[in-house]
Amino acid sequence: MKINGYEIKPGADLKGADLKGANLKYADLFWADLRGADLSNADLRMADLKNADLRGADLTCADLCGAKLNGVNLTCAKLRDADLFWADLEGADLWGANLRGAVLEGAKLEGADLTGTILEKEENN
Predict the structure, then answer these.
(1) 88 occurs within a structural domain
(2) Which site among 10, 26, 68, 100 is 20 to 30 Å from 83 CA-CA?
(3) How far is CA 44 from CA 20, 61, 108, 114, in A?
(4) Which residues pair with 7 in a beta bridge?
């Protein structure tokens, strides 16, 4: 499957890819390199991203409901206002990720590294 000229497949090299708003529902992207990719507003519901590298990726407002994110590297990723309802983040590395406003209800976080994550909502002054 190709989206915006990018081949969407397991192990794909998608470093810096512009996949903003892309429909990636049920996509198989396990072991994919998505470092610095723009996945803001993307539909990643039920996508398989196991062991993918999403360091520094922009997942702002992305829909990751039920996504498989086991062992994924989300170091310094932007997950602001992302929907992670029932997402499987077991063993994921979320070091320094921005999760402000993200929906984490039902998400599996066992063994996930949440060191330095931004979780709280901004105060309106």
Answers:
(1) yes
(2) 10
(3) 11, 11, 17, 21
(4) 2
Q: What is the CATH number of the domain that holds 72?
A: 2.160.20.80
Q: Give residue 125's pLDDT.
A: 43
Question: Does the residue 75 lie in any domain?
Answer: yes
Asked if the structure places residue 49 within a domain, the reply is no
- For 82, the domain range is 61-120
- Distance, in Å, from the CA atom of 125 to the CA atom of 114, rounded to the nearest integer, reads 27
Task: Return the pLDDT at 6.
Answer: 96
The number of folded domains in the chain is 1
Q: Residue 61: name the closest of 79, 85, 34, 36 by CA.
A: 79
Dist. CA 15–CA 117, nearest whole Å: 23
Nearest 5°: CA angle at 81, between 103 and 38? 125
Could you tell me what percent of the chain has a pLDDT over 90?
94
Mean pLDDT on 11-36: 98
Report helix, strand or coil for 89: coil
Report helix, strand or coil for 101: coil
Give the residue carrying structure tokens 């999403």.
54
Q: Give me the amino acid identity at 77.
A: A
